[in-house]
């Protein structure tokens, strides 16, 4: 969202003549879902967008007869099927996900490279123009929005995290502008130093800057405030759906397989609510609503000792997959378990209250409750035709950005 707004401003200021200086940020989030991301609402408020429910362009604002044919893709590099008409043209890509190799002859710029946040790549574009135009000024509110995105995507630019030099350079460049915004200028963290000119923050110092730390803490607190959400809300608040070409093993309707990945900022022990059958029923209903053959629930949270933890719940609906004798489920599970980049360890369902007494929520004893032989079919709360497994993810750095391409390769073969 921040990247979309930032790139639209960049095009309006520095776009090529054929754009006539016009670009509009289309936020792909349905307006009804805005309340599911309190950290987004907070970041928008810091940037002066106090009523995002009406101020932003959302999918439902576009009529079926809209005349938009040129698209710039930010934070993804394949045009959504909703907009992929015969005359649609992708004219720019700014992204940090795996390159799917599309639009090489139409997109300019076409920037797809690793970094912690796509907002850093958008900021880098602005920086390149500003170096040749010293009269330019990025609006403080936009600087706050881009800085918020970088901060939350990289966990406050902390060392050993997702941030690389392009993220730190972008944050260092944005910070002096952001400090001029009324939403940040009055904070205690902003008052700890004297004003500086853009570009004077070093990469070494930016990670520990008090304003970055304060912003990260606030946004993360907002992001974790999800205890009141229903199971359905948790599944859809940070959800991405993918259409994969089916392999001979994963025979899907129409030659495709629908897969969804939901990122949930809670441990599965909380998500399952001590063996609640209603949670299982709601999860199955979500799969059916979305027409999914595969659903992955990716949890991210911290243990009682503050250590980052990740888990994975995978569910396969064999009816939609069109395979027999659990072929797709077994192929998926075996392939995931073989991924050295994930380091998955299977966990018994008894841990979550579905059988036995379960155990403590804390994960600091990492080998506790690990299954050597795995769950029996009867221990799973998901009944046929839904086949499910739960894993602890030992590689805590692998996120949906890495897991989605792995899933694509497994399904498509």
Shape: globular
Unreliable runs: 194-199, 356-362, 365-378
**Overall pLDDT:** 85
- Which CATH class of the largest domain applies here? Alpha Beta
Strand-residue fraction?
5-15%
Number of helices: 15
CATH fold title of the largest domain: inorganic pyrophosphatase (n-terminal core)
Helical residues, percent:
25-40%
Largest sheet: 6 strands, mixed
The SSE order reads: HHHEEEHHHHHHHEEHHEEHHEEH
Count of individual beta strands = 9
Domain tally: 2
Q: How is the largest sheet built, in terms of strand order?
A: 4-5-6-7-9-8
Q: State the distance separating the first and last CA atoms.
A: 32 Å
**Which second-level CATH architecture of the largest domain applies?**
Alpha-Beta Complex
Summing up helix and strand content along with how strands pair, one would put the structural category as alpha/beta
Radius of gyration: 22 Å
Q: By CATH's scheme, which homologous superfamily of the largest domain applies?
A: inorganic pyrophosphatase (n-terminal core)
């Amino acid at each position: 969202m921040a990247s979309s707004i930032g790139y639209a401003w960049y095009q309006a200021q520095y776009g090529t003549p054929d754009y006539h200086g016009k670009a509009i940020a289309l936020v792909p989030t349905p307006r009804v879902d805005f309340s599911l991301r309190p950290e987004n609402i907070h970041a928008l408020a810091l940037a002066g967008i106090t009523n995002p429910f009406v101020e932003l362009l959302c999918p439902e604002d576009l009529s079926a007869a809209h005349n938009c044919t040129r698209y710039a893709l930010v934070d993804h590099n394949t045009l959504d099927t909703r907009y992929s008409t015969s005359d649609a043209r992708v004219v720019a890509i700014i992204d940090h996900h795996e390159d799917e190799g599309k639009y090489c002859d139409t997109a300019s710029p076409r920037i797809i490279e690793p970094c912690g946040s796509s907002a850093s790549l958008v900021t880098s574009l602005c920086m390149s123009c500003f170096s040749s135009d010293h009269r330019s000024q990025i609006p403080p509110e936009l600087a706050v929005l881009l800085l918020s995105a970088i901060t939350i995507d990289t966990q406050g630019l902390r060392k050993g995290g997702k941030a690389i030099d392009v993220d730190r350079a972008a944050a260092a460049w944005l910070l002096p502008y952001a400090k001029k915004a009324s939403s940040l200028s009055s904070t205690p963290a902003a008052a700890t130093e004297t004003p500086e000119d853009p570009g004077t923050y070093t990469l070494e110092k930016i990670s520990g800057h008090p304003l970055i730390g304060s912003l990260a803490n606030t946004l993360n607190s907002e992001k974790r405030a999800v205890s009141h959400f229903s199971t359905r809300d948790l599944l859809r608040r940070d959800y991405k759906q993918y259409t994969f070409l089916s392999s001979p093993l994963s025979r899907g309707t129409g030659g495709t397989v629908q897969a969804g990945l939901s990122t949930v900022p809670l441990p599965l022990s909380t998500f399952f609510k001590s063996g609640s059958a209603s949670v299982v029923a709601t999860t199955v209903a979500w799969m059916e609503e979305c027409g999914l053959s595969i659903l992955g629930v990716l949890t991210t949270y911290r243990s009682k000792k503050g250590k980052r933890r990740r888990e994975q719940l995978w569910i396969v609906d064999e009816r939609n997959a069109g395979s027999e004798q659990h072929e797709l489920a077994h192929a998926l599970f075996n392939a995931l378990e073989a991924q050295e980049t994930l380091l998955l360890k299977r966990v018994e369902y008894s841990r979550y209250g579905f059988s036995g007494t379960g155990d403590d929520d804390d994960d600091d004893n990492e080998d506790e409750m690990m299954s050597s032989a795995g769950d029996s079919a009867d221990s799973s709360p998901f009944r046929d035709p839904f086949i499910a497994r739960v894993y602890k993810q030992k590689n805590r750095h692998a996120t949906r950005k890495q897991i989605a391409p792995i899933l694509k390769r497994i399904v498509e073969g």
